[in-house]
Amino acid sequence: MMNFILEESAQLIGQFDSPVTPTIFQDGETMFVPLDIDVSPFDNSNTKKEGVSRKYKGCDGYAPNFSYLLE
Question: Are 60 and 52 in contact (CB under 8 A)?
Fold first, then answer.
């Protein structure tokens, strides 16, 4: 499953003409690309969706993860 996710992620990034440029630390060798990841609970109280469970705000829902690759 992880290989599939990595392959799909590489394909998605390749669809855009936007190179991913790492930030270089002061040592001149260490590089990183910031990736912001957060969960966003959705209210699904009035649906019959599978996998829905009680969330911290007291409603039924699901919580997909979103990420943003920064440069």
Answer: yes
